[in-house]
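Raw record, unedited: SERF family protein
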Amino acid sequence: MGGGNGQKAKTARERNMEKQKAAKGSQLEANKKAMNIQCKVCMQTFICTTSEVKCREHAEAKHPKADVYSCFPHLKK
């Protein structure tokens, strides 16, 4: 016999605690790997989801004398 409501609640709490421990984690390593766009002038890296607009903004703000395509050659089509 046994296994009253108190025992069931305790085991459910323990199960939920284990699930929460496994779910937590840092995103930092994944973000470092995703930094694959690089400015060729200053070597600053950007995350792979960076838009063309942000690349152009960087080039105009940081390297006004350089061409956008010299900073980011992948933008040439």
